[in-house]
User: Which sequence fits this backbone?
């Protein structure tokens, strides 16, 4: 079994699972801040960053679920775009996140503080995993070439050919 045969499903599973967790955490934060009378956002900037994180998490979930039906070229493009999205979203969220991990010592396990810190941690983990997936796809292209086939056919064979 080649490296690509096990690394792609494993990486897509991890990326998808973390994206689903991020959707849940961000959606919960959005619900807590918009449910009921009045707006309870620390700032408009924070609200916009949360909505962008929700979009990026949903985008990632959709891509991770649909990776079975896309070829390598589209997968490479999706990975680059997803890497850029997560990097921007997480870096911008870090700028406006009102909580530091050390602030959460005396809070409950499901507190807003711990959820905010978890959202940021998941974001940086997604950045690392999408970078690793990008390298795995490039390695798959290279191994396809070393097997005597050309690059043009590598992408159309898909991840599991």
Assistant:
């Amino acid at each position: 079994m080649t490296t690509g045969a096990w690394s792609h499903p494993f990486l897509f599973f991890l990326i998808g699972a973390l994206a689903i967790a991020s959707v849940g955490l961000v959606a919960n934060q959005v619900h807590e801040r918009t449910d009921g009378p009045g707006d309870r956002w620390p700032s408009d900037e924070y609200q916009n960053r949360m909505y962008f994180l929700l979009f990026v998490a949903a985008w990632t979930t959709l891509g991770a679920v649909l990776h079975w039906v896309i070829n390598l070229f589209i997968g490479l493009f999706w990975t680059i775009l997803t890497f850029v999205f997560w990097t921007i979203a997480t870096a911008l969220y870090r700028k406006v996140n009102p909580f530091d991990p050390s602030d959460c010592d005396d809070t409950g396990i499901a507190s807003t503080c711990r959820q905010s810190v978890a959202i940021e941690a998941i974001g940086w983990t997604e950045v690392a995993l999408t970078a690793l997936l990008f390298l795995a796809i490039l390695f798959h292209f290279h191994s396809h070439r070393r097997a005597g086939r050309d690059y043009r056919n590598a992408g159309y064979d898909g991840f599991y050919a």
